[in-house]
Amino acid sequence: MNIANRIIRLDFDADDRFDDPVLHAINHPIGQVTSALLDWWYRRELEDGQKLPAFLLLVFTELCDTDNASLVHGRVLLAAHSITLYRVDPEWAIEQLLPLFDWKQSEREARGAWEGYLWSPRLYRPMMEHLKGAFLDTATHYAQLGDHHSQYVSLLTLAALEPGDTFKTAELAAAVRTLPAEGLNDLADSLVRAVEGAGDKREEYWRNRLTPFWEKVWPRAKDKAQSVDGEALARLCVAARDEFPAAVSLLQNWLRPVEHPSYPIHRLHEEALCGKFPDAALLLLDRIIDANAAWMPPELRDCLNSIAASAPHLVQSQRYMRIDALARRALL
Predict the structure, then answer these.
(1) pTM of the model
(2) Cα first-last separation, the chain
């Protein structure tokens, strides 16, 4: 412990490199000492409300002093363990650690704290009660999160799908509206994972979680539509399974031609949705297949055959004839 104290008090130069706060933290002597202290602490039997040991309380408080720029690497790693620190000593965490996440106090410190937290993120609601403002504000700093921006959007998605008593729908919708195009694409991917993760309860999850999210949280601005990856939204519709027609109806104004539609078409065929819901399947295909698509997957012909067998009247529709012509042009 004395060695750790001596290292922390060494006169390190402030590190101006902050392109990857976590990487720099785990490779810096201050970060390595912080990790060693945390490892020592974790060997104890930790309990909620137990409080930090006196020695760690002093050292971790010193690390949280933002007036000492050379200790920033320790703060990044403390932020990575903020949930455990909060559970064991909530009073200390609220006073010393959680203020580091506040963008209004210091963008540099907040970026380091959030990237540390997002290294292995979880939505721990008791702590989030104290971080809510900074958490929602992080959406406006999406570009500053480096490689961790998708983890942030995953947490924001989870918060929006299951807001509980922590978040208000209007607050979440405002945060989502501030995301750039890349952030909305991350959000669409997160929605797909959420629905697929519901397993046998996908349909119930779609009705109770996705539909309210789409109606109340997803941005309505038309200029955003052109920036969202249509492939992810097509996969989202397919993931709904028996709620597929409702999903296509709900998302149809956001569905757009996909440069490489192979995977959503493959999933559409794999889930056998074309024969089960031919009208919705044809509408989805019509929305995502562009006339100038360079290549069509073999499953497209299988999809068309299933639609024709299930609903022969659709063969004479403009949508079917257009896609059939494209399939024939591709020798399908």
Answers:
(1) 0.90
(2) 71
Rounded to 10°, the helix 54-63/72-80 angle is 120
Distance CA 293, CA 260 (A): 7
Given a contact cutoff of 8 angstroms between Cβ atoms, the answer to whether 38 and 77 are in contact is yes
Buried b (16+ CB within 10 A) or exposed e, 86-116: bbbbbebbeebbbbbbbbeeeeebbbbbbbb
Across the chain, mean pLDDT equals 92
The C-alpha atoms of residue 68 and residue 14 are separated, in whole angstroms, by: 8
Helix (H/G/I), strand (E/B), else coil: 307: helix
Dihedral sign of CA atoms 46, 99, 146, 139 in order: positive
pLDDT per position as a tens digit, 126-175:
999 999 999 999 999 999 998 899 999 999 999 999 988 899 999 999 99
CB 102 within 8 A of CB 112: no
Distance CA 92, CA 87 (A): 10
Long-range contacts: 250-255, Cβ < 8 Å, 24+? 250/211, 250/214, 250/215, 251/214, 252/283, 252/287, 253/225, 254/225, 254/228, 254/230, 255/230, 255/284, 255/287, 255/288
Give CA–CA dist 53/69, Å, rounded: 25
- The domain limits of the chain are 1-120, 121-242, 257-332
CB-based contact 314:282 (threshold 8 Å): yes
Half-sphere exposure of 12 (CA within 13 A, CB side): 18
Q: Which long-range contacts (CB under 8 A, 24 or more apart) does 28-33 make?
A: 28/73, 30/63, 30/70, 30/71, 30/72, 30/73, 30/74, 31/73, 31/74, 31/76, 31/77, 33/4, 33/7, 33/8, 33/74
**Residue length of the chain:** 332
The residues near 275 (Cβ < 8 Å, ≥ 6 apart) are 306, 307, 309, 310
State how far the Cα of 31 lies from the Cα of 224, in Å rounded to an integer: 41
Q: Which token pair is 210? A: 């996705």
Rounded CA gap, 273 and 278, in Å? Answer: 7
Two tokens, residue 29: 């002597």
